[in-house]
Amino acid sequence: MQKRLYLHRLIGLLIGCGGLFLLQGCESGIDRQGNEVKDERTIVLGFAQVGAESSWRLANTKSIKEAATAESMQLMYINGEQKQENQIKAIRSFIAYQVDAILVSPVVETGWENVLNEAKLAKIPVILTDRAIKTNQSDLYAAFVGSDFNKEGRMAGEFLMKKFAYESDDVNIAELYGTVNSSPAEGRSRGFKETIKDNPRFKVICSQSGDFMHSKGKEVMRSILSTYKDIDVLYSHNDSMTLGAIEAMEEVGIIPGKDIIIITIDGEQKAIDALKDRKVNCVIECNPKLGDTIVDLTKKLLNGENIPSTVFVDDEVFTEWDDLSTLPPRGY
Ligand code: GYE
Fold first, then answer.
1. 226-276, pLDDT tens digit by residue?
2. How far is the CA of 132 from the centre of ligand 1 (A)?
3. Which domains does the chain carry?
4. How close is the Cα of 312 to the center of ligand 1, in Å?
């Protein structure tokens, strides 16, 4: 315990929260003003974030930082810059610091066993936030908190079938894929394809990754448009790529939302604005505001309470048929 307190103090100094942190780091004793300090130790969370690739991601980071601050938790935040190796390195440093719990949003689904076993050995609980992992070892993490990506894909497919319900021609679909081997991309693709599979006139004629990024979305869309002349629908795994793809369409005189029907996921303000401008036809929300739920679960976990292993947040669908005039600002 002594070592742990020492390390907590050290982290406090390292991340620049000196005085206050030192105070809260004591189990009991006397502060500099001579007041007695109760047994109230700051909870330290290590958070290995994916990166800063989209407005969605920035809102997600903000939500988690704000929720931790509101509960006076100390958050050690690391931006993984889209690299699994950076996230693994961050988790190892959290283990070395003996944080109380580790939050990780795994950039890809596989390759986490070693480092998560190290956390397990150090008895530090791990909560997966936003993105999930694939593993046979169910005790590597305490809970997953995020969206149901399969369901998002199904909602995208359902909109498409409604949209084309009164036509009989084939519908050629281009899929802008998120990061390969990431749980949102895999789930969104699977759910969508499951929904349209019994209707052979819906054809996904190409699927290429834009890595969830605006610039890559634009680049990939340019290349798709130069290769395929008969795209009817763009199904894009996130708004950042969609906004880039819209620019690529407009460059060559294609009218987004009319010449090519667009379905996008996330629900950023810019995508909702594009929906209102009729450049996008359907936006599936993916709620980035996970902070309160995560912090609440973490507190329960550290108190020894049972927590559910999966917590899905609710996502809405916004379409060109809805009245969006009263929709509050999205905040991301
Ligand atoms: O859709 C995208 C971000 O993991 C659900 O990652 C998240 C996705 C989100 O880059 O904008």
1. 999 999 999 999 999 999 999 999 999 999 999 999 999 999 999 999 999
2. 12
3. 2-147+288-314 (3.40.50.2300), 149-286 (3.40.50.2300)
4. 15
What does the chain come to in residues? 332
**Beta carbons within 10 angstroms of residue 6's beta carbon:** 12
CA distances to 105, 137, 186, 208, 246 from 140, rounded to whole Å, are: 14, 6, 21, 32, 41
> CB burial class (10 A; 0-12, 13-18, 19+) of residue 38?
exposed
* Protein residues whose CB sits closer than 6 Å to any atom of ligand 1: 53-54, 56-57, 130-131, 184, 212, 238, 240, 265-266, 286
For Cα atoms 284, 289, 291, give the angle at the middle one, nearest 5 degrees.
150
Strand duo 317-319 + 282-285: pairing = antiparallel
Q: Which of 130, 215, 290, 332 to mutate to test the pocket of ligand 1 (most atoms within 8 A of CB)?
A: 130
Residue nearest to atom 5 of ligand 1 (CA): 184
Do 256 and 262 meet the contact criterion of CB atoms below 8 Å apart? yes
**What is the distance in A from the centroid of ligand 1 to the CA of 139?**
25
Choose one of 211, 212, 240 to mutate for the ligand 1 pocket test, by most ligand atoms within 8 angstroms of C-beta. 212
Tens of pLDDT, residues 40-52: 689 999 999 999 9
Contacting residues for 292 by C-beta, under 8 A, at least 6 apart = 63, 67
